[in-house]
Amino acid sequence: MKLNDFFLSIAECLEINDLNLIKADFNISKTWDSLGQINIINMLDKNYNLVISIDHLNEITYVQDIIDIIEEKKNIKFEN
Known about the structure:
54% of the residues lie in helices and 0% in strands. It is built from 4 helices and no strands. It has helices at 3-14, 34-48, 54-57, 63-74. The chain starts with a helix and ends in a 6-residue tail after the last helix.
């Protein structure tokens, strides 16, 4: 999967229009609200068949944390 496609999915979940903001080092914990969290959970379930709890999601700080979870649990590697 392309990393930019993943960044686009994150931006859509968080309703962020400036796609240049979303990178691996983007501090997601400062921008999402409960709806954004639910959108991320749904996206991960739909796109990666990955179920993640709100409690686990609350431990995430950066977009890279989500990438690491996907790569670890689903053995998926993102391409640039």
